[in-house]
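I have been asked to look over a protein record a colleague put together. Alongside the sequence sits a line of tokens, each denoting a local backbone shape. Please read both lines and tell me whether the tokens look consistent with the sequence. Take the sequence as given and treat only the tokens as open to question. I have pasted the whole thing underneath without changing anything:
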Amino acid sequence: MSVTDQKTMLKSFDETQARRVLELGRETLAIEADAIRALQARLGDDDSFVRAAQLIFACTGRVVVSGMGKSGHVGRKIAATLASTGTPAFFMHPGEAAHGDLGMVTPKDVLIAISNSGESSELLDILPAVKRMGTPVIAMTGKPASRLARLAEVHLNIHVDKEACPLNLAPTTSTTVTLAMGDALAVALLDVRGFREQDFALSHPGGALGRRLLTHVRDVMRSGDAIPAVGPDVPLAKALLEISQKGMGMTAIVDEERRPIGVFTDGDLRRLIERMHDFSNILIRDVMHANPRRVHPDQLAVDAVAVMEEFRINQMLVTDADDRLVGALHIHDLTRAKVI
């Protein structure tokens, strides 16, 4: 179907249909919001939520989440959320579990079995083996009297009065409430474990937060021969050659023990040209900026960014505990590393 055909179809709604579409959209959101509020209201009716959190917190293995169909899709999300917030977890398809994947489950694990009806045959088929193994079971169902609810150590009631589907058939409200229950568990456990931003970053090294909290200056700085550096008594012309060859738009000026005493940048050169034209007798010590900004290699790269932004500079020197030059950092290095 062409884009033109698609646009024609989109325009084919008459006024009545358009109103109905908007009405159903709003109604769906209202039904699902009401169901989550109802879940919130009954969460303290018994101690099941606290007991489920305690079971998972005490677990020395992993949380195994399982469910069929739409419950399985939601289960994958719950397992992923638990895993990314400090609770090791994975999803196990109940059909595959009956044909060998059950070997992934151990007595040290906890199984979260999800079924709105509580009568999913695929889950009920593997439950006897799980129970014989001694693995605790947390059931999420909409029917407290169901077989799955009765067989579990803890039952979390995810009952909804109706699905948002106009036919009251397609899993809509029930899956939303199930997902919300999983999020509630994950967040409660996150807090009990004392999970911090740094912990989150460890499981998200590829994300923006991970890069900010895990990338150190030593990971992105230029080192060795790539560091532009000259002594204080070299002619300005030689210092400019160093700047050109190293491609950082600056050079450090270091003493005999390689401690920075100054810096000279492209910007300094432009300002110098405005004042004089004969550079033949100028030494770098006469035009350098003394006491340049520096960071340490073990600092977070994001800290270096903060200093650069505060003082509006594009380069920084990196020094060790003895204030010896060990690296150089350019704003472009931080951009390439996606720290900023």
